[in-house]
Design brief:
This protein has 222 residues and is of the alpha/beta class. The chain has 6 helices and 14 strands. The chain has a 7-stranded mixed sheet with strand order 6-5-4-3-2-1-14, covered by helices on one side. Strands 7-8-9-10-11-12-13 form a 7-stranded mixed sheet, covered by helices on one side. Bound molecules: nickel (II) ion and manganese (II) ion (MN).
Length: 222
């Protein structure tokens, strides 16, 4: 059984019976109350170095002897802090034990000198998941949907720092994802959104289904 477990904000875990990987492990200051010590993972994927994404990646990496997968600048920075890291960059793919990772562009600050924010398309034991990271809508999402058959698109809808709900509807149209999970909203008042409204609009305008996953809960992945 494969699961998506939502912590909160842009932090979630993909897991099987034998393995788990975490994305953007922002825990210190996350309303979820989850602590780094609660996390058991083999890999940590980091989209950019803003505090609400890099978060507790270094601490979790040390505790679990887990590998950090990110852009070269972040991989270098965490290596210097004694973490195992695999540096990649936009357009590159690499095969990890759980499956292939493709680094996608994200239009957003890197949070680290010389870097670039990214997203990930992960083939997690045969399920293709696109995590957009923090980004605006961009028209090459159409290309990503052509390059990879996306089963689940995990998209920010908070607005202010990233695309908001109406742009995210357009993103779903471009990506042609089967299912969509909105994230990066309702963490703070500045990114308050109504996911039910987003769900209604996506399901009216596209064939995709929106799964609203409450923080702290999991859904089974097909
Ligand atoms: Ni950010
Ligand atoms: Mn963010």
């Amino acid at each position: 059984m494969k699961k998506f477990h939502y912590i909160h904000h842009a932090c979630f875990i993909l897991e099987t019976e034998n393995d788990a990987i975490i994305f953007d492990p922002f825990l210190d200051g996350n309303p979820s109350g989850v602590k780094p010590a609660d996390i058991k993972v083999s890999h940590i994927l980091v989209s950019h170095a803003h505090a609400d994404h890099l978060g507790s990646a270094i601490e979790i990496a040390h505790k679990n002897k887990a590998m950090i997968i990110s852009t070269a600048e972040i991989a270098n920075m965490v290596s210097e802090k004694g973490c195992a890291a695999h540096g990649m960059h936009i357009g590159g793919s690499y095969l990890f034990p759980f499956g292939k990772v493709r680094i996608t562009p994200a239009f957003h600050g890197a949070g680290i000198a010389g870097g670039h924010a990214c997203g990930f398309i992960v083939d997690f034991y045969g399920t293709t998941i696109y995590f957009a990271g923090d980004t605006s809508l961009f028209s090459d999402m159409k290309l990503l949907g052509e390059l990879e058959k996306i089963d689940y698109a995990i998209l920010p809808i908070g607005d202010n720092y990233t695309m908001g709900p109406s742009d995210a509807v357009k993103a779903v149209e471009l990506l042609k994802a089967k299912e969509v999970i909105p994230i990066h909203y309702n963490t703070w008042p500045v990114i308050a959104q109504d996911p039910e409204k987003f769900k209604k609009e996506v399901e009216q305008k596209t064939p995709a289904k929106v799964l609203i996953v409450k923080p702290g809960s999991s859904i089974e992945l097909s």
